[in-house]
Amino acid sequence: MKGARDLFPTDKGFFIGRKRVTGIFQTGRRLAIRNNTDPGDELTLIRDYENKFDERAVRVRDRYGGDVGFIEAKSNDEIAFYMDSGCECIAVVAELDKKSATVGMLVDVFCRCDAVSMERLSASYEEYMRSQITF
Prior knowledge:
Structural class: alpha+beta
Number of helices: 5
Number of strands: 6
CATH topology: Alpha-Beta Plaits
Shape: globular
């Protein structure tokens, strides 16, 4: 079986990375996720500007529009940067542990944009990250 990276057309964007989804336990949707979500499913990513706990919060929704959780806060900065720059980012379920109490989920995240935008944004993100380093 091919992985999500193999199925995503690289001429339409690029692979950001594999990320953990958190907060599934809090959404109260564990049963729905267990019954309706499988590896390979595409999920919607939405910037959550109103989140009082994380200024870079990225909400994860299933194909029915139901909340699944959030991209883990310690690894959402790149996704938030690209989304704030106007790109659409999507997630594809890579791994799903339906037996754990919290329903463990890892997703492969992709940013959809053309090659020129991709180069420009990659350079901008690297510059942004350098500016965040404090000594």
